[in-house]
Amino acid sequence: xxxxxxxxxxxxxxxxxxxxxxxxxxxxxxxxxxxxxxxxxxxxxxxxxxxxxxxxxxxxxxxxxxxxxxxxxxxxxxxxxxxxxxxxxxxxxxxxxxxxxxxxxxxxxxxxxxxxxxxxxxxxxxxxxxxxxxxxxxxxxxxxxxxxxxxxxxxxxxxxxxxxxxxxxxxxxxxxxxxxxxxxxxxxxxxxxxxxxxxxxxxxxxxxxxxxxxxxxxxxxxxxxxxxxxxxxxxxxxxxxxxxxxxxxxxxxxxxxxxxxxxxxxxxxxxxxxxxxxxxxxxxxxxxxxxxxxxxxxxxxxxxxxxxxxxxxxxxxxxxxxxxxxxxxxxxxxxxxxxxxxxxxxxxxxxxxxxxxxxxxxxxxxxxxxxxxxxxxxxxxxxxxxxxxxxxxxxxxxxxxxxxxxxxxxxxxxxxxxxxxxxxxxxxxxxxxxxxxxxxxxxxxxxxxxxxxxxxxxxxxxxxxxxx
Amino acid sequence: xxxxxxxxxxxxxxxxxxxxxxxxxxxxxxxxxxxxxxxxxxxxxxxxxxxxxxxxxxxxxxxxxxxxxxxxxxxxxxxxxxxxxxxxxxxxxxx
Lengths: 468, 95
Ligand SMILES: Cc1ncc(COP(=O)(O)O)c(C=O)c1O
Known about the structure:
The structure holds two protein chains of two kinds.
Chain A: H1 8-13, H2 15-23, H3 39-44, H4 50-59, E1 67-69, H5 71-79, E2 88-92, H6 103-116, E3 121-125, H7 129-141, E4 144-152, H8 160-171, E5 175-180, H9 185-196, E6 199-200, H10 206-227, E7 233-237, H11 242-253, E8 260-266, H12 289-297, E9 317-321, H13 323-337, H14 343-358, E10 364-367, H15 379-388, E11 392-395, E12 406-409, E13 419-420, H16 423-437, H17 445-454, H18 459-463
Parallel strand pairs in A: 2-10, 3-4, 3-6, 4-5, 7-8, 7-10, 8-9, 11-12
Antiparallel strand pairs in A: 1-2, 9-13
Helix pairs in contact in A: 4-10, 6-7, 6-10, 7-8, 10-11, 13-14
Chain B: E1 9-17, H1 28-31, E2 35-43, E3 52-56, E4 62-70, H2 83-86
Antiparallel strand pairs in B: 1-2, 1-4, 2-3, 3-4
Pyridoxal-5'-phosphate (PLP) binds next to α11 of chain A.
């Protein structure tokens, strides 16, 4: 056995080599420039059709989740809307997947790929749900799994939701490497991949993202069967962008070309993601702007050379909601609809309430996921923890929310308004990030075309931004 | 000091990177502390709390670290009742 230098710099320098070994994808094959690559060919060359994906997922208790109409919440929204407004709100119950979230769709295809390529195990670095999904899918395929997870701050304290997600990984038989706060999570992932020779079940490979396509496809099928038309809007909780990318691609494959694809994140602006102090001042562990904005404006900041999750390619709108608004809606879902579900899906549900109010009564807005709930992963746990950490919790107007300082829970449904994120600002920010990779003067025609497609605009628009 | 026997389920802690070895450009409050890993496994030798030792993890890997906790458990809960949530969606709030 070769003894490798495990210093931070040495491991990071071996990144490409480790990636090639642990994924079996040679990204150089798709790369066209420091900016552009052949995205569609990379996705196609996973070799799976939609039928393959659905068959593989059925083998391991993934997919075919129910789609519920939220009658009571829809009625409540109509009561506060202008006459004729108040779209029907539908909810796709992704908590029904093995391991309790849509992340099982991603892990299912990675586990299958790891198995057929002869790997003995798989590894993922994740804040949680995905770890549980990997562990659950690995267990069903007879593979070992290791989850590398950021869990505690320098005092050794982890927030209840993160602790619960770690527990769930261990429950399915995974080895969980629990780490203190820091971006060195990626370094640890690389080290562990190198030590074990396991498959890299990164969240951002084409396998993972193709696995989410079945979600969008099912939404299209279910809405058409029951309502005889396409959904008007699909709201998607957004962090790293895989949820949105996969769902939107699935909708397009089903022919839903007019459906509005709406991203939604919890607004945590002002809190630093690599900060030991801010770590436990957030009451959401995913689906927030701390991931959503940087990943939208530069997807390739991930643990693979090119990210298959490219949210701005598919996003039509981006809604922001406050922590207090989501907690309010979570409680309302429980009391009005008789189901308890975990935090992430309720983020997009909150935005759906705002959208439904603006949409016509005969329109349909789909919340495309729920996730499981339980001790730790529950709005009461998170609020009690926030309170114990000196964060003010009160009822009032949610515009008074201050991330990390005050959580203001609305007093009435009509106060749930969210806020619109400026998409063009995000797109310009993406172009600036691209310009840091390759000076604008060196952008080729192909680079312009790639960038335009990657932000859902035309080349003309890209040229007119002043960046280019 | 009591000896913890071979085969006991424990948690070990290992300093992966000291503050000086950590990634560049970290916020100062993060950079101040070492990068620490904790992992659970079965002791492969008798050991004492606080002592360097080796565990075999649930998937059979051997890892070294300082013995931190015997029989590590989870005690996270639903938290103390948050009164601000209680009346949401009830008659008291016009639903
Ligand atoms: C349940 C759930 N919903 C939504 C998301 C957001 O997905 P993505 O990171 O692909 O944007 C996550 C990811 O962390 C999640 O676990």
